[in-house]
Amino acid sequence: MAEDLQIIQGSKAEIYQSLIPQINALTDGESDLVANLANITAALKEQFGWLWVGFYLVKNDELVLGPFQGPVACTRIKKGRGVCGTSWQQAQTLIVPDVEKFPGHISCSSLSRSEIVLPIIRNSEVIGVLDIDSELADLFDETDKQYLEEIVAGIQF
After folding, report:
1. What is the pLDDT of residues 74-100, one digit of tens each?
2. Gap between the Cα atoms of 19 and 16, Å rounded
């Protein structure tokens, strides 16, 4: 298991292409879900320096806070509420360039300006989401979507 993260510079695609094998090395052979989610959030936060990176897992018809890096967060989110609950409800990735313009946005941190939320889908069911917030508006794009969806797809549950 690799426990050193090599932070690189380059295009966004180059950074993800370097980071994904490192994440895979961190999680290969580890069966504990919490440990793997914690290392994924740490790797993403360290590489990109985003405000908040974390997972919410579906439990009893709510999203419940899981491993994360960043300021304290909302603990529970109902289906259809905010960006995370909407991503869960629609079972699709949402890129929000300006969180202030998203109807029903849940502000866990007043510093958040843009957000991307990716559903974790197994057996045609959303079992959680990866939520990432930035202090910068309009930060996330299709490159983030592509590579973050690859990371989410590789998580072993």
Report:
1. 999 999 999 999 999 999 999 999 998
2. 5
Three-state secondary-structure class, residue 32: coil
What are the pLDDT digits (tens) for 37-88? 999 999 999 999 999 999 999 999 999 999 999 999 999 999 999 999 999 9
Number of helices (H), then strands (E), in the chain: 4, 6
124 Rama sector, left if φ>0, alpha if ψ -120 to 50, beta otherwise: left
Q: Using an 8 Å Cβ cutoff, are 109 and 82 in contact?
A: no
Q: Is there a contact between 134 and 89 (Cβ–Cβ < 8 Å)?
A: no
Question: Quick check: 117 and 129 in contact, CB under 8 A?
Answer: yes
Please say whether the beta carbons of 94 and 52 come within 8 A.
Answer: no
Q: Which of 140, 150, 121 is nearest to 50 (CA)?
A: 140
Radius of gyration of the chain from Cα atoms? 15
Is-contact 56 65, C-beta < 8 A?
Answer: yes
Contact assessment for residue 25 and residue 1, using Cβ atoms and an 8 Å cutoff: yes
Chain mean pLDDT for the chain:
94
Residue with tokens 């009893």: 60
